[in-house]
């Protein structure tokens, strides 16, 4: 899709620019415990401030349900954001906001109060859109992670003010276009996680888009069961076997090769390094055993598949990676993908909370071509859905 970026915004000296960012960061004891989302704002906020704009940051924090409260105030994030940006950041309450904005000097950055203190924010209420728009001359959306929501601050503002994609949003959209929009082929997708039911739409969409679909995690057990494999006590959605069969049939028709594990790591208990741990063929899983990871032979073969591909999209771990030794398959395949990306033979795009955690655990997140920190928005993009916040920029 085509969209305007900060390259198209023109002269913003002394103009108020409303920038939608994602400041919904985890906090404990009043401190930010992960500043990834704050760091993602740096490029856009500093560029606009350096151009002389009055930069007004719009964001939500938590779920205040339309009621102002100290607990969900963005006031507490002004200082952490200032620390990341390396420059002052002021805070503006909704009371007296117009006078406060007028008093800002060109080049200033200010955080506006939580957008969700307005009940109409999540309803995309025209009155709330107008309230926000009255403060700014331009609108910049830099929060891909909130782009799947048609809210006043994510979609509505783009309809009433000149709208542009921020640098983080621009980078995300370009990476996603390379991954599934107009990718270099062959394309592989790794989809893992516990349950097929949470990623049905993703799987249905991907079989028509990719050349290789690698299924891992607990959801692989449902597909193995659909193919007649006895998976013992493994996590398995037996009621979805028919749906899994349908996905496999559609993959065949689309020319997409689905890769399921043929050797697996099993145990009678889900515990770190259990005494009952063993690796076996999928047809040798005992009735009292659970499949907890993909086996080494299958991982080696999957690594060979990636070596034939030019593009990779990854969402979800291959096994129960939170506990050793069931992290082995995820770590090994991630390291192969990272090495291929580093040498320039593979474009790799990964996203989703568990995925980012798994790649960090493997020590390779920095070597992937692009890592998306978006959860719901990344999944909906993988499902082929139109994201309202992105569509409004077109």
From TrEMBL:
Binding site for ATP: 199, 322, 352-355
GN (gene name): pgk
HAMAP family recorded: Phosphoglyc_kinase
GO cellular component, one term: cytosol
E.C. number(s) listed in UniProt: 2.7.2.3
Pathway note: Carbohydrate degradation; glycolysis; pyruvate from D-glyceraldehyde 3-phosphate: step 2/5
Top-level taxon of the source organism: Bacteria
Protein name listed in UniProt: Phosphoglycerate kinase
Subcellular location: Cytoplasm
Entry's transmembrane regions: none
Alphabetized Pfam families for the sequence: PGK (PF00162)
Keywords recorded for this protein, A-Z: ATP-binding, Cytoplasm, Glycolysis, Kinase, Nucleotide-binding, Transferase
Quaternary state and interactors: Monomer.
InterPro entries: Phosphoglycerate_kinase, Phosphoglycerate_kinase_N, Phosphoglycerate_kinase_sf
GO molecular function: ADP binding; ATP binding; phosphoglycerate kinase activity
Gene Ontology biological process terms, A to Z: gluconeogenesis; glycolytic process
Similarity-based family: Belongs to the phosphoglycerate kinase family.
Species of origin: Novosphingobium olei
Reactions catalysed: (2R)-3-phosphoglycerate + ATP = (2R)-3-phospho-glyceroyl phosphate + ADP
Residue numbers binding substrate: 22-24, 37, 60-63, 116, 149
Record-listed (2R)-3-phosphoglycerate binding positions: 37, 116, 149
